[in-house]
Amino acid sequence: MKSLSAYHALCEEIWEHNYHYFVENAPKISDRAFDQLFAELIEIEKAHPDWVSPSSPTQRVGEILSGGFPLASHTTPMLSLANSYSRDEVQVFLERMEKLLLPHEIEYVTELKMDGIAISVRYEKGVLVRALTRGNGEKGEQITSNIRTIASLPLQLRAPFPDTLEARGEVFMPKSAFQALNERQTQRGKQLFANPRNAAGGSLKLLDPQEVSQRGLAISFYGIAEISGREPASHFEALDYLRTLGLPIVGEYQRCSNFEEIMGFATQVEKCRFQLPFEIDGVVIKIDPLKAQKKLGVTGKNYRWAIAYKFAAERVETVVRDITVQIGRTGVLTPVAELDPVFVAGSTISRATLHNQEEIERKDVRVGDTVFIEKGGDVIPKIVSVCLEKRPRGAKPWKLPAHCPVCGTPLLQSESEVAVRCPNKRGCEAQGLKRLIHYASKGGMDIEHLGEKVINGLVELGFVKKLSDLYTLTPEQLSCLKNFKEKSIQNVLSSLERSKEVSLARFLMALGIPHVGAETAELLARRAGCIEALYQIGEDELLEIDGVGPIVAESVVTFFTDPEHQEEIQRLLDYGVHPVVIQSKGFDSHSFNGKTFVLTGALENYTRAGAAAVIKKRGGKVSSSVSRQTDYLLVGADPGSKLEKAKKLGVKILDEEAFASLL
After folding, report:
1. Which residue among 113, 382, 434, 621 is the active-site one?
2. pLDDT digits (tens, 9 = 90+) for 201-214
3. Is 434 a catalytic residue?
4. pTM for the complete prediction?
């Protein structure tokens, strides 16, 4: 009979072999010998269930979850990387670093940019306790049970380990696992996954860890978010340290001192990109010293000290079988090329937008043409050019129809724009459908469980025509949707109920007012204060708002003076939708209230986004350029030309100390 100490020693031995297999890619024993050790461990745990610890190699698969994943806050915000697509853009990034940092701080690390799902994994006393998705950067979903199923991820760190470690990484699906998954999907008669990244994301959303464990997911770590004790001095040291703890880091990483070394690494990686056993879409360039990273901070949603260099899109050949027309929520017609399905940059493409008639004529795309396809930024498929040598005889130039293909209304084109529109805003079913989809989308009211397929089904059944119809849906109507049972019905109804409490800015976005984006919606909400005030607002008053031009002003006035729009908004309000302006309390008389700030240089105690946030919270505005309307210029280290312009215009200049005292 094995002793408890022998049991722990066996666990350690198995974890050690896991490390050599998954991290060092140098197994010390055969697969059969490993399986025998694992079988021995299972027998011991059957005989002594009280010995089993959460970090045992057998404890990867947990219980099936009964509902969705709970949310939790990240210890530090989990931001994304700014992208670059050319050598020149990388050069600009390096020049910016040289302006913001001292010479001894300028050292870089280059590494592979995995095409996967970003996650954050937390260990306490060496044991894995939590894993979160990126989510919105502040909060993510707790997917710990699913992350535990990844074979290359240790549940127990190798000693000596810190008391607390939170590491950031990327979950991905190797190409072989992706191929095997789609083969199983085919055998089961289920829809295929478009690419490994989508398959990895879908797998992490599964509620059954046992099923997740069959997906063959892998993980690679790229940094430390939190650590107790001594922190590594550089990013390169941090990566080495993660490896010593047993955490996998896929691919090579390299220190670089200049542009030539960085691009040399990128060129070498790009040459073997498609031979790798996993998907990458570029390399990541990071400032190496961690003190320099903290000094630089963040800008908006990105880290200022890092950039992703995305590789040029893969180009493939296919045939245009047809050109069809899509109609958007504002009536704009968009021609779409229907293609022979072709695999490009990790996914199968069968359609590509042709944008407008002018674009079709410029590229001279015709039905039957052989064309070259690539994915812009490896995301959006586009036709690059036509292979004229392969053009079939009799292929004719394509023209947009004279009438709307859905409602038959004659199409219009104004002299001021390329777009061709269907003017039948009320009677065109295609426009109504797109408005409904936009209203429920993440950019609109963000109504969960009410996606495009669900809305399509509701429209086809005749249950929904207007936005307000969504709030009259009954369980009986929803039960008519294909595969909709009690849980799905309740999910939709609950999401609709939650959507009623909404900020005025988001509500304005959801209404789909032409030319009004998220930033403009925020400006309108602040100015109006309530939805009813927008019925009376005039173009002159709108033009007083910094950031609103004549086209937007005219569009807003046209929208809110339309009686049918007013009636529909009133119906939404009557059904309980309650749009409110989220206003800061206690700052009405603050010296920042109504003042316009411009920021320049590297701030020591604030990130640019953080400074902007405290200004806006106190009623101020932040502009990107200095003008006579600027009240204050907040100046950090190494300010640019804005400082000289502010001096010439007599704008009051604040350093961080003066700014803090005004706060």
Report:
1. 113
2. 888 988 888 888 88
3. no
4. 0.53
